[in-house]
Design a protein that fits this description.
Number of strands: 3
Strand content: 15-25%
Oligomer: single chain
């Protein structure tokens, strides 16, 4: 009866992995509230913060309806939480959920700018195709 295993994993050139984990709706709302109160610009940064300060603790998380959330983590953090999950014999998703559950409900702003992801570049706008006129014979 696994609630939410990692459903997607990709790694890019910068050494970060994209993880997708299912979160109960109330936990998702708590993480979004934490993100806003702490002044973090992205949900990924709030999740990385929770995982960085997470200490392996076995806790039962009840099964409930959930939302899938994708976030990027550095490769070394992914390796660390994967090892924690294996040693605790739980899913990586459970490690993420327990770490997020341990976030304080009343956080202070966290001035850590080195974890902010670079903004994605916008694609160049394409102009309208030129009309060709047919030559008359």
């Amino acid at each position: 009866m696994k609630q939410a295993a990692v459903t997607n994993k990709t790694e890019n050139i910068s050494g970060e992995s994209l993880l997708t984990v299912s979160l109960p709706a109330d936990l998702h709302a708590n993480v979004v509230a934490f993100q806003e109160k702490s002044g973090m610009p992205t949900l990924s940064q709030a999740i990385r913060h929770a995982l960085d300060r997470f200490d392996t603790v076995r806790t039962n998380v009840e099964r409930s309806p959930s939302l899938q959330v994708s976030f990027r983590v550095p490769s070394e953090l992914r390796t660390r939480i994967s090892r924690q999950a294996r040693s605790a014999r739980v899913s990586l998703g459970r490690i993420v959920r327990v770490a997020l559950s341990a976030l304080p409900s009343n956080p202070t702003p966290i001035p850590n700018k080195n974890n902010i992801m670079a903004k994605k570049k916008k694609a160049a706008k394409k102009g309208a195709a030129k009309k060709k006129t047919a030559k008359k014979k």
